[in-house]
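Two records follow; treat each independently.
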Amino acid sequence: MKQILKKFRRRNDGAVTVETSLMIMGLIILTGGAIETGYGFYQYNGAQQAVRTGARIAATSDPVARSINTMTGLSGSVSIGEAFPDFQVTCSDETRQCSDGSFDSTAMRRIIFGPDGDGICSATSRARRGMCDVFKETKRAQVEVSYFSSGLGTSGFHGDAAPFVSVTLRDVPLNFVFLDLVGLGDLVHLPPVEATLMGEDLKNG
């Protein structure tokens, strides 16, 4: 028996096959990782383009928070003509609510689906693009729009809050090529993606 074991240990038949198999497995893992990483960056870039598009629309459209255009900033400590006081109003399409004032679903729909508000996510002309036309993975419940003070507004006048407008896309699952095959694709999400612009007239047209 000892003689057989010694002969078995000294034999190297098939060693090349085993080594090749291990190398191929390593190459497959590295290749798969590179593909997944590249696709992840591709999706993140798409999400960035979507929030930039949404921010451009939000900065030039009726605000999702209806209170923004009626705020005067006046209070016991703030008089007419003084700098607009700090404020922040956040609206979520998941809850259909804003932290202050009523929620304008038409304004949110315009941001997500574009100026035509057609409710369709597909390639279209630049002037008609909304967030989901740029990034199809955009879901309404993942979009938040915030309005916050820029320090440029003047108290005492309706529609003179001069806010920054921020659009955020959050909780977007990454679509992996290989993880999706084994049902693990929803485990990883993109970090929140945000774009902020200075609000302009905040009025459609």
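The next record belongs to a different protein.
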Amino acid sequence: MIFSHRYKFIFIKTHKTAGSSIKSTLAPLCGQEDIITPMESNRSTDLPKNYHENNVIGKVYAQSKMFRKCINRHSDFLGKWYYEHMPAVRVRQLIGEEIWNSYKKICFERNPWAKVVSYYNWKKNGQSRKMPSFEEYVMKKSHRLLMDARLYFDGDNYIVDEVFDYESFEITFPQVCEKLGDSFKVSMPKEKTRVKQEKMGGYQEYYNDETREQISRLFYREIEFMGYKF
């Protein structure tokens, strides 16, 4: 997540939409007072900043995984805590309506049938996780699916200014930079990972009627809002 006072924009990071690459490209251009949340790949660099309270509790919470497991990141005990894949509703709560309404709020989204396949392959092949069959992964409630509408919707209403389509990334990313101003004339970022799909016919080859319909039900907000089709 990026919260830039200098350029008055908020970038809500969704999953499997080149969010890490976008963030790595835009973050170095932000000001000293801006908020850049940490990723695993940049945690040891000087990019993450201002994402926690500048006190003992905030610093310990940022450094200790065990501490973060014990205390909910929305706890009032922590004060303001910003993190990756943070819901826009929570950002609005922390920064207040006045700033929220005056800053530009953007994110990217992806066809959910393709997103679920991409995430499944990333966990199985990119991270070498032991994964169930794709059908079980989609149908079992115990498995995490990336329903990212929760990140930029409040109930059934979207609350960001623009949601750009990941599939036309080469066109939309320059548009995003143009909207942010002249300082953001940057080169096209590269995706963090490019894990190959196991089936060569495309994401549709992973689905049967039941799993296809399951995605339709779970991701109805993204599908209706963006006009996605299988």
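Discussion point: The domain at 2-226 is CATH 3.40.50 (Rossmann fold). How would you locate this feature using only the token line?
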